[in-house]
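Q: My collaborator sent me two sequences in one message, no labels, and asked for predicted structures for both. Can we handle them in order? The first one she listed is below.
A: Yes, handling them in the order given. First sequence, followed by its structure tokens:
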Amino acid sequence: MRLSCTTKLISCLMFLAVLMAACQAKPAEPAQTAVSPAATAAPAITLPADKGKLFAGSGACAVCHTSMVDKGGQDVSNDSLWRSTMLANAARDPYWLATVRSEVDQHPALQETIEKKCATCHMPMAETTALAEGEKAEILDAGFLSVEHPLHPLAMDGVSCTLCHQVEPDNFGRAESFSGGYLVDTTRPVGERLAYGPYVIGEAQATVMKSVSGYQPLLGEHLAQSEMCGACHDLLTPYVDREGQVAGEFGEQMIYSEWLNSAYKERKSCQDCHMPLGQGGVQLSTTGGPKRSPFYQHIFVGGNAFMGRILQANGEALGVTASAEHFEATIARVVQQMSIQTVVMLVNKVRLEGQTLLGEVAIQNQVGHKFPAGFPSRRVWLHIVVKDAAGQVVFESGAVGPDGRITGNDNDDDPTRYEPHYAVLSTPDQVQIYEGIMFDSDGQVTTTLLRGAVYGKDNRLLPVGFDVKKASKDTAVMGEAAQDKNFSAGGDLLQLELDLGQAQGPLTLLVELFYQSIGYRWSQNLMLQQNGEAQLWAQYYASVPNLPLLAASVEVQVK
């Protein structure tokens, strides 16, 4: 159907208004990657609006998709919510940057493989563009990180609008779609490229969007499928043997596969939890249009509040496009989800037999994948404290310091060792830590990704409905937990047998479950590397205490 003269006039006027706003926008400041940490966060700067043959910076979309309010009066603007997430800052993450440099320094012959693998999901617009033009996906030095590189602005925009909204569903759920195997149509010319979304857009609004951004909106219901997220969150990486030869692949993170082998595949998608719905209908654009419902908020809430704090505290040095207030809101969402929606913990059958405190700690995983999930630096553990009648500590396991070290954890004390899984916890030097511990091809503990061949320990809490018998080698339970009958789908049941010596009651038992996104050993090993990125990471790590998030807490009085 052709546009009427009135509709054409309205479209032209809306286009001119948006174009004027775009012309007045301040250009994005280049991200800096080789400067010392700043003491305070910089205010938000304009999102990059650079346009290439395949992609446009987030600023090209934010011109219209802003000032969005839901029925409850909350700001649900895509740009406001997204810009302080880990997706937006995937290319600025200083821990990731130091890891890329470290892996390349240790395995220089594999630099091209390493940089392509890492850029695929951390700098996806730049990586896809480079490959389409027959060039290499280079990150370091004169690569995408350099302000002189023509793809630098798109690289630093992280996992952005025109990447996700151009992904095709053709290979969803197949092995080739994982490890960054998402498909983007690189054949459509500029001005005719499609941008998938969850709604059918009217012709007048579609004309405005195409005129302003160069992208034609099209209904794409596949954006709500978990397979969309699985493209990067099922990640197989190559590993090398002691001679430096590639010897196989390792499931570094298998979040989608964990979800697929759980009861959640019939209940909730990734987006249901990580992009929760706004209240009621939301008008999507400043150019008008009907209110749309359901509206998935672009908050992409995860668990990495520690990195959020680092980005917030060192915003100017890291070139972030979010304000301190943006980061504070994102961190608050992380804390809320971790403390309310992640686990349920019960402490049962607590009693004294002589001077021994007996009881059970039951942890029920409430998320649709292992907890903790994703990158293997993440860990969850129990902090157990018993105090006597005078308030003096008579037993403690799992205390943590401001540097992130867990007292009594073998791996924090010695990089060659690790804390086993416990069915029964009885002494202060035992700490129940739910984590993945990588072994190299020689069976030695490692935090070097290119040496990680298998998880020697993987007792991360399983989701409800997880079928251990059907689990692949990359999602299986490993180590002592595999023989613990009380460790099963949905959580763990830990027995307590605590010798309290001559302690006088009544006693107070406090059990806390803590979460940490970057474990102490992972950070310490990285800071030992002699390169600029590792040393900068050491400064950033020191700028914010690596204190864990509290996922659950139970206090019991024992007489």
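Q: And the one she listed second?
A: Here it is, processed independently of the first:
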Amino acid sequence: MSKFLKRMFLFLGMLCFSIHGNAYHIVGGEIFYECLGVDPDNPDAKLYRFILKIYRDCAGNGQDFDSLPGTAIGTVTIYQGDNVVPFIYSLHLDAPSITWLEADAGNPCLIVPPNICVQEGIYEFEQSLPNSNDSYHITYQRCCRNSSISNIYSPDETGATYTVELTPEAQAECNSSPVFANFPPILICVDEELNFDHSATDEEGDQLVYEFCSPLKGGGLYGNVTSPNGIYPDPDAPPPYDGVDFIVPTYSALTPLAGNPVVSIDPFTGVLSGIAETQGQFVVGICVKEYRNGVLLSTVQRDFQFNVTYCEPTVIAQLEGDEENGVYIYESCEDATFTFENSSFQSQFIDEYSWHFDVNGEDWIFSDSEPTVTFPEPGTYEGIMVLNPATQCSDTAHVSVRVAAPIYSDFEFYYDTCVAGAVSYTNLASSGNGSIIDYQWDFDDGSFTDESDPVYEFEDPGLYNVSLEVTDEWGCKDTFEQVVNWFPAPPIIVVEPSTFVGCPPASVEFVNLSSPIDNTYDIVWNFGDGNLGNEISPTHIYERPGTFDVGIQITSPIGCFIERRFENWIFIDSLPIAAFDYAPLVRSNFEPEVNFSDQSIRAAFWEWEFDRFGETIEQHPTYVFPDTGMMEVQLVVTHIYGCQDSITQIVDIEPQVTYWLPNAFTPNGDGKNEEYRGGGFFRGIKDFDIQIFNRYGGLVFQSADPSEAWNGQKNNTGRMSPNGVYLVRVQFTGPRGEAQEYKGFATLMR
């Protein structure tokens, strides 16, 4: 268990022993007797002095000793023989003499926790008892035990009986019982070896035998008591008395403290020994039997509550550092000088520090609390720090100092400077402490490896700070770094596209896929048309037709050079020439069909657009125009490589009109030829005017609507004009603004 945990348990132990219940502070007792001889007042009786010792836990405000002012009157009841009812004597006790007992851990180098307090109250009384062939039982009872007891069931409901038997053999011999020589240990320290002399003395020199025995139930809550009853029985209950109920199987009357080795008592010496492992409060019964010539004369029983807790040593050797299996480990990979930081305690009990280091067979000694020691060379040095050497209260800390030998990280590398490829690394690391157990390479591009001798190829050219960190068996580390100047020329020049065919102006993007290259490389392009470039992936425009060779030269920052020429790589063909004819050249609304004939050069595809009316991809189309006018006809031709040319011509579809005048009409109501109007095709005319005159020059009909007819009436008055010949004149403007005039004669007949 660590020293820190021990201190924590000590604190908890002190807390545990400071919170007893208020009513239950009687923690043990015993009765023994002395035969004073024949009673002067009764030759058939002997006078006895009885001594009752009661032990009280005085920490807190619990129950005080009986018979003190303000307390109950304690009683002792004496029973005779097997027929123990009724009792023969019931004695009221006077106030006890009280002694404060010191807690003793049994080891001067252990600090007894505070709040552990025990008082001894001694009651003495004398009683004359007639010689009898029956035993006398002298009994004192009390309720109850502390509720914090760990090894019995329901301790706060279990009373205690302190009794001694005065046997007929003891009466006949005027025997005095054995008396325990030492007060029982108030405190037993957890995990500390117990060695306590619990022996008794006997003035007659009788044989004494020791054993653990069961403490006895009693008091007002004792199950066999029928009357009287109460916490302070008066009279006390008669024998026989039952033992307390131990929590089995861990505890029993013979193993009340358990432990490892189990706490036991030597039957011949009365020495208690063993190691208690569990903190708590435990009820223990110890009996000493007195034999004379093989005959049992008496048994004295001590019933006591043992306190088992963690005890703090007066001094604890402790250092600041890593601890392995009880040894403080100090290591250094760079410095052989160590300052040992001391955290030992308790400082008030430390009188001397003694440091010893075995340095190559010599004993280096230091007396400082925190010495600074420089060791001569790499190696492992064992040492100790002793607090209060050559005294009983001493403690020792073991130290192991490991001074590492130098460790060196180093490496070399090889690669072909101008040919792109992997770099081979060879580690040259060494350590005087043993093997190198870990290699950590950092290639300065986000890549790492733990190989001993890696082979690695960079993706991009550059200056790389490559580092190697090595670790040896002692955990010592070292790092070495070198610059790898990796600027090789590409092993091959790769450019897309691998060929190009087009028409001027042809924009060609040369994608340079060569690797490794970057902007630090000197790149010269020869595009074959007299122009140069220096970008990694340039775009160049070819303005004229032709077949061109392309060349590229690449020079790395350290002078590595590669070049390549691509012959006949770029072919720029001549542009197509768009041209067409059409026939007939003159078309009208009466003949709107036009035949087109492609006359283009180097054309592979044709796109015709006939003004806003239609389109076609035929090479020699025929088109019928749906309207008249100046029609814009465009031809776009496309080269087989995608180049284009276009031409636009105007085709005139003339809007033509026809007009004629009839020479007679017969408005006689027979439904035939009843009206007079002009005929023909005259869409698009404007400013139309028709006038009809009689032979006297009088106007008989006029209209601006070419579709309106003369019905033979005079100006639509309802009066019919006479038969005869009338003069007709028509004027209008043609579709393209030309003036038109027609004259004729109209004969009216009925």
